[in-house]
């Protein structure tokens, strides 16, 4: 099974600051997804990246897939308290199986 | 429309007991997945169904774990002789099956506590 390492595991910053979360693997994935999970709920898909070097933007969130399709990053600009949550990256292993990282717990302080 | 639902939301049991966890996928979704999420970790794949059959059960940790989906809709995850290490949130997800990457829609999970 391929492994995904996320860093940092915990991040607490002030409202208005920028941040980047990383997702790294020694293996190549056919695609990579980013999810956000709130307490007591299941993960909710934010974005899927498929092509090496791909960049996708979702409002203040920017997602990038590495050229070699082994790593990805999530950058948040001007973080807001509503961005607080657990951010998970997941790589597609085969057609259907997802391998998740351990998550980055983000706290944005007002 | 209705999302993925899971029952019960919480289950407390004693070591050695048998438990069943239920998942109702989104109507029309042919693929169904079970994951387990331990405290402070990401979800860990257990099993995937395409229709009624288990297409990939490589994530089931041992033979105490079993899952069924007899009519291709609702699924039940069954755990025999529960152990304290089985305590976790069990997540179910469903998706439309097709070519390429399929978005998986997750339910809220069942929190299992084995005393």
Biggest beta sheet attributes of chain B: 7 strands, mixed
Structural class of chain B: mainly beta
| Chain pair sharing the greatest interface | A-B, 25 and 28 residues
Oligomer: heterodimer
Helix-strand string of chain B: EEEEEEEEEEE
Quick overview of this protein structure:
The complex is a heterodimer of chains A (110) and B (115). Helices cover 0% and strands 55% of the residues of chain A.
Structure characterization notes:
The complex is a heterodimer of chains A (110) and B (115). Chain A is an all-beta fold and 110 residues long. Helix content of chain A is 0%, strand content 55%. In chain A, strands 2, 4, 5, 9, 10 and 11 form a six-stranded mixed beta sheet that branches. Chain A is globular and about 40 Å long. The model of chain A has no long low-confidence stretch (mean pLDDT 93). Chain B has 115 residues and is mainly beta. Helices cover 0% and strands 48% of the residues of chain B. Chain B contains no helices and eleven strands. In chain B, strands 2, 4, 5, 6, 9, 10 and 11 form a seven-stranded mixed beta sheet that branches. In chain B, strands 1-3-8-7 form a four-stranded antiparallel beta sheet, with no helix packed on it. In chain B, a hairpin with a 2-residue loop joins strand 5 and strand 6. The radius of gyration of chain B is 13 Å and the shape is globular. Chain B starts with a strand and ends with a strand. The mean pLDDT of chain B is 93. At the A-B interface, strand 5, strand 9 and strand 10 of A face strand 4, strand 5, strand 9 and strand 10 of B.
